[in-house]
Amino acid sequence: MEAIKTSSYTIYFNEYCYTYLQEVLLPENYSTLFVLADTNTSQYCLPNFLAQVATELPIEIIEIEAGEINKSIETCIEVWHALTELGADRKSIVINLGGGVVTDLGGFVASTFKRGMDFINVPTSLLAMVDASVGGKTGVDLGILKNQIGIINNPTAVLIDINFLDTLPSNQMRSGLAEMLKHGLIADKNYWTQFFDLNNLTTDDLGQLIHESILIKNNIVEQDPKEKGIRKALNFGHTIGHAIESYFLENSAKEPLLHGEAIAIGMIIEAYLSLQQNLISINDYIEVKTVIENIFEKVDFNENDIAEIIKLLVHDKKNVSGEVQFVLLDKIGKTVINKTAENSLIVKAFADYKT
């Protein structure tokens, strides 16, 4: 599969990942190799990864607890201490082996330790392959509030080995599909239509869809690296979705949702807002809702849930002067940014979601 070159780094696929590592992990380039993994990837991915890494560099493994709840500044402090105790210097390099929590947090840790060291992202989940590890966003949550602390800083490379997907449970695979669906909805209607029937999807098909999804995201990021304009389109479904994800994370009576599960709901809600603002047709809305609901199970919301989720919208990072701003669909394959919506309309959107 052909590598994707961005303005500042390259995304390699499958066997070319390890060819690249063999060429770059040399003593004249780096002093020490640190691999950051969580408890899941340490068990299921790390042994196979290390078996394919040919280097004379000393290798140190740093392990963190798995899960969004550990995507915190407290975990960063633990990793910074580990790097210090293990003798990391600015000529060290960090490989972040894991899902979005590991690549986001690991990128932030590397970007800030000793004012910056190189890092490579090796995403092991579908979500991280098509979204979290690409685009240079690094950072952590602030309590339950998603991605409030961080910087945009690009990795040295991103390495995507789709064989890691064999380690994922089905719900994690669906979570990644949400971001791929989003890429079609915001930028490429033909890509979107490829998700109408996933029953006959092969590994090769999935590899090609991942490649196309990254191309879509990279094209948007290259136009707007700092998210001042068009890059905001990548947040379709995320204003509502992040609020839902945060609410379910903090509420002990609720089962936490995976990122993609929350974003799937967010896309339906925000597609409804698009319909009510006469940006898309009723047929487009029904298509969006039907395709997403064929992949993701419905989640139940009561009136109190919806009220609390709406309260969380004020913390969305796209907001300006306290005004909640949405990315809405202009049609399938196109978006409009910086749109607003009354709370009453959001309540109606949730009501329609439940029907």
UniProtKB/TrEMBL annotation:
Residue ranges occupied by any 3-dehydroquinate synthase C-terminal domain in the UniProt entry: 176-319
3-dehydroquinate synthase N-terminal domain segment(s): 62-174
Record GO terms (molecular function): 3-dehydroquinate synthase activity
Cofactor(s) this protein cannot do without: Co(2+); NAD(+)
Keyword annotations of the record: Cobalt, Lyase, Metal-binding, NAD, Nucleotide-binding, Zinc
E.C. no: 4.2.3.4
NCBIfam families reported in the protein's UniProt record: aroB
Protein task: Catalyzes the conversion of 3-deoxy-D-arabino-heptulosonate 7-phosphate (DAHP) to dehydroquinate (DHQ).
Full protein name: 3-dehydroquinate synthase
